[in-house]
TrEMBL record:
<protein>
    <submittedName>
        <fullName>Iron ABC transporter permease</fullName>
    </submittedName>
</protein>
<keyword id="KW-0472">Membrane</keyword>
<dbReference type="InterPro" id="IPR037294">
    <property type="entry name" value="ABC_BtuC-like"/>
</dbReference>
<dbReference type="InterPro" id="IPR000522">
    <property type="entry name" value="ABC_transptr_permease_BtuC"/>
</dbReference>
<feature type="transmembrane region" description="Helical">
    <location>
        <begin position="78"/>
        <end position="94"/>
    </location>
</feature>
<feature type="transmembrane region" description="Helical">
    <location>
        <begin position="164"/>
        <end position="186"/>
    </location>
</feature>
<feature type="transmembrane region" description="Helical">
    <location>
        <begin position="210"/>
        <end position="230"/>
    </location>
</feature>
<comment type="similarity">
    <text>Belongs to the binding-protein-dependent transport system permease family. FecCD subfamily.</text>
</comment>
<keyword id="KW-0813">Transport</keyword>
<feature type="transmembrane region" description="Helical">
    <location>
        <begin position="251"/>
        <end position="278"/>
    </location>
</feature>
<feature type="transmembrane region" description="Helical">
    <location>
        <begin position="106"/>
        <end position="124"/>
    </location>
</feature>
<keyword id="KW-0812">Transmembrane</keyword>
<feature type="transmembrane region" description="Helical">
    <location>
        <begin position="290"/>
        <end position="307"/>
    </location>
</feature>
<feature type="transmembrane region" description="Helical">
    <location>
        <begin position="130"/>
        <end position="152"/>
    </location>
</feature>
<dbReference type="Pfam" id="PF01032">
    <property type="entry name" value="FecCD"/>
</dbReference>
<keyword id="KW-1133">Transmembrane helix</keyword>
<feature type="transmembrane region" description="Helical">
    <location>
        <begin position="319"/>
        <end position="339"/>
    </location>
</feature>
Length: 347
């Protein structure tokens, strides 16, 4: 019997909380601003809030505090925020597309593929500019994704959440090993250690001028296709029953994932678990409608990365702890919790 759109949507239970979603977005934005101000204020040199405000509004290169803020701390925290948004949104898209609650760019081979591309850049083209590094990171992430989905679909049952996760673990191990092998052979271990551990130190305005528009365009496209993603998260048969062009939607959304993951890895390295944790937390708060999940994931992914970077800078000052290790301290227990619960959604 033919099912109407209304019946299909009701059967699959779309939980949308517009009022809560709006409140969460506003709260998240306020938290993001506060976390950035906090991150700029703390460190080896303590800086007052009014000093931060004056440096942003009325920058004076003659003042040492202004130089620290505008040359080091502000671009670093903005980089952390934009990368956190990219990882979180790409994770949310992957979880919706694959219906796999364990999906994350760092767990499904994308970050490892981008890291392998970075190793190749350092080995064969040491003078490459940041734009070249980013483009090659896109390509590396795409290779990782093709290997994971190709390997996961080889068996009779096709792609299932557990097969995708296992294939992602295998491909990530393979690509990471290849990257480390290249680093050892070309004596690049020290240069590549930054991207392996993950970190935003050294982020500058020239890099932000490239990565910010790329990530913003990716997030905007994701928001534009968020309704289609919500329907696709019901399953491909349901999406087709509602008249959706599933192949076109998947191609667009997968391209967005590759752009976001590749851009993020090119700036901070292979950081996992941001794209795993944030969408689950947001889904618990705002429901299963991706029109709210995507923008809220972007905001809270930014907050998570800024706070993680702040903790990494201050926990063992004046030395820095890799931000990837800080995120993993939270992400690994979260992943084990989801795995133990059988991948069931938190909502």
């Amino acid at each position: 019997m033919f099912k109407t759109k209304t019946k299909l949507i009701k059967e699959n239970k779309v939980y949308s909380r517009p009022a809560v979603g709006t409140a969460i977005l506003l709260l998240g934005f306020a938290l993001l601003l506060l976390s950035i101000v906090l991150a700029i204020s703390v460190g080896a040199a303590k800086i007052q809030f009014l000093t931060v405000w004056n440096a942003v509004i009325n920058y004076d290169p003659a003042r040492e505090a202004d130089r620290i803020i505008m040359s080091l701390r502000l671009p670093r925290e903005l980089g952390a925020a934009i990368v956190g948004a990219a990882f979180a949104v790409s994770g949310a898209i992957m979880q919706g597309m694959t219906r796999n609650p364990l999906a994350d760019p760092g767990l499904l081979g994308l970050n490892a593929g981008a890291s392998l591309a970075l190793a190749c850049v350092f080995a064969f083209n040491t003078g490459a500019n940041y734009l070249t590094v980013m483009i090659l990171s896109f390509i590396g992430a795409g290779i990782g994704a093709m290997l994971v989905f190709g390997l996961g679909s080889m068996s009779r049952g096709g792609l299932t959440p557990i097969r995708i996760t296992l294939a992602g673990a295998a491909v990530s191990a393979l690509l990471s090993s290849l990257g480390e092998g290249i680093a050892l052979y070309f004596k690049l271990s020290q240069d590549l250690a930054f991207w392996t551990a993950g970190g935003v130190s050294g982020t500058n305005w020239d890099q932000l001028k490239i990565i910010v528009p790329v990530v913003l365009v990716g997030i905007i496209v994701a928001v534009m296709f968020s309704r289609q993603l919500t329907i696709l998260s019901f399953g491909e048969e349901v999406a087709r029953g509602l008249g959706q062009r599933t192949l076109f939607t998947k191609i667009v959304l997968m391209t967005v994932v590759l752009i976001l993951a590749g851009a993020a890895v090119s700036l901070v390295g292979a950081i996992a678990f941001v794209g795993l944790m944030v969408p689950h937390i947001v889904r618990f708060l705002v429901g299963t409608d991706y029109r709210w999940i995507i923008p809220c994931s972007a905001i809270f992914g930014s907050v998570l990365m800024v706070l993680a970077d702040t903790f990494a800078r201050t926990v063992n000052a004046p030395y820095e702890t890799p931000v990837g290790a800080v995120v993993a301290m939270i992400g690994v227990p979260f992943f084990l919790y989801l795995a133990r619960k059988g991948g069931r959604k938190l909502s």
